[in-house]
Structures are given as structure tokens and as C-alpha cells.
Give the backbone structure.
Amino acid sequence: MSKTSSPGRPGFTPTLVLLGALGAACGLAAGAATGCSSPKTSGSSGSAGSSAGARGTGSAEGPGSGGASGPGRQTERRGAAGGSGAPAASTPAGYELPRPSSGSAVQPPDSATFSAAPSAAYVGVVLARQAVSVAAEADGRLASIAVRVGDTVARGAELATLATEEMREEQAVAQAAVSAARGDERHAVLELERTRDRQSRRERHPELYAEEELASARNAVQEAAAALDSARARVDQEEARLRQGATRLAHAVLRAPIDGRVALRYLDPGAMVHSGTPVVRLISARDFLLRFAVPPEKAGALHAGQAVELRLDSPPLTLGGRISRLAPRLDTASQMIFVDAELDVPAAWVARLQDGLPGRVVVRG
């Protein structure tokens, strides 16, 4: 069986999973990603008492208003002290609302808006540590598939089977060719022995034979030796074809290379497949890691061993973990640095985790 370690459907990678989660959470264009590390702020002032006189920018996550670094960003300026409590209006670019008079007291921003966060928060994705696409290594028709999405399989378990009728016929032809080649080899051995005997008799009594007969006997031995070499080469060739056929038959049964769960089933019985066509995708069932993205300017503050906290909405879980490694280069698609972390998952919660679950990541310290 052929296997590839790129997770998901063809073209589906952990990076794309993370970029999709980042885009959904931050309201970015498809394929972009952001850390979304700024705390949420209200897009409009709810009361004059909590925001009177303060000027600032409000950012909201989601496609409606755009993320802090995404498209559709709007800048809002709050009203002067003593306002009526109506929502602050967005001002066109290049315009400023009147500043408060010198006698007006400027109130600080709403403390609820800037809640004390332990550290920066980012968007992360739970990923299975192992993900394998099991592919066919021979051309043929898919005879059966023994698993469905969600099934748990052990390493070596049968996943699918290719039709073997044509393979067995080719194997029978190859076996017959090997038998014929071996027969030719035996004939060549006997011929070489006869020519050597003839030459030996003439060489013992050279005076009884003409020089031409002696030379002819020597040439016959050389030709018989060459014929034997050719027969043996043909035997090797036909045996190699026979071994290839046996390998194809062995690969007609696709088996699980790891213990895991069936994440995808690409094909149904009856489909024609070619060598390298993915049939089933497996992910490790009990071993997960966390991957999240941070802006390059903040990656320098992170290090291996630093504590992180993952907060999931569905299922509602909070998991702890520690950073295991930071990518050594910038991801060109998202312009972010990817970070992997080891998750501390209680045994009772393992079954509730799934590959690709998005969540909020808080970095401690």
C-alpha cells in the first residue's frame, strides 16, 4: 500500500485547516490568517458614562465589521464628555470630531472593554499527530471497502481490496513463462556439455583432426556458453515478472499502517483506481497536538516549554499544554509563524476531540 503523510483530502493540509479556522474566526479573506491577539472592544459606545470624552478605535471580529487587521476595518471615535448616550458615529477619513473643551474632564476608557488578559490570545486548531492517506499501488477496480468513516482500526487491518481476477491471470502467464525459460536453460546446459565433450576428444588426439575441425569445436563451445548465459538471463527476467505479479497481488489488499480512525473514504466499491490513488484516510485516534499562528513580531516572545491554554467551544473544554516548537520560517500564505504545542488531554476527554477543531489559545507568561 502507498501512504502519504499529508492530512485530509487531496490538497488538504494542517496549514490549510489552520488558515481556514483563522479566517473564520477573524473575518479574513480565504487563505489569510491572523493571531487576533487584541482583546475584543465594542464597535459602538453603549453609554455616555462609560466612554464619555474618550477617543479610540473599536475592533470587532467577524465578517460584519472586519478583524483588526482584516478587510472592512472601520475606525470609530467616541463622543465628548456629557454626550447623550447615543452610539458614536463613524467619521469619514480625514475628519475629526470636536475635541472637548479645556474645562471638560476626559474620562478613562471603560474598564470592562480592556479586561485584564493573562497574555495574548490566538486562534488554534487541534490536529491528529498522525494522518495517513492509504493509496492503491496497482491499477484496477476497487472490489470492496471494509471500513466506514468513524471506524476505529488496528494496524494491519484490512481496509479495501482490489479485484484480482486479471492479476491472477497475468500471474499464471508469468509462471508459464518462467517454466519455459527454465526449460531453455536446461537445454542450453546440455548443449554446452556436448560441445565441451566433442572439443575434449579432439584436443586429446589433435593429430587425427584437421586444424579447421579443432577450431570449429572451440567455437561451438563458446556459442553454447553464450546461449546458456542468454537462457539464464531470460529465466531471471521471467522470475522478476513473476515476483512483480506476486507483489501486485499482495498490494491488492490495502491495510492500515497505523492504529487510528477512518477520517475519510474517498471511493466506493466498483471505482477504477490507478497506482497512487488515495482510497482511505486515517488519523491517529488518541494522540493530538495543538497548532496556532502568531504574528512574526510576537513570535520572539515565545519559547519551547511555555504554558498555553486551549479553550474549545464545541465541545466546551479547556485544555492545558506547553509549546513544543516554533516554525523556523514565516508561512508565505498567512505571513504568520506556526507554533506547535503538546496538549495534556485527560483520558476521559480523548474521545471528544476531533482533528481540525478550532479554539482560542492563551499563552501564559
Q: What stands out?
A: Confidence is low (pLDDT under 50) at residues 4-12, 24-118. The first helix runs from residue 14 to 26. The two ends are 46 Å apart (CA to CA).
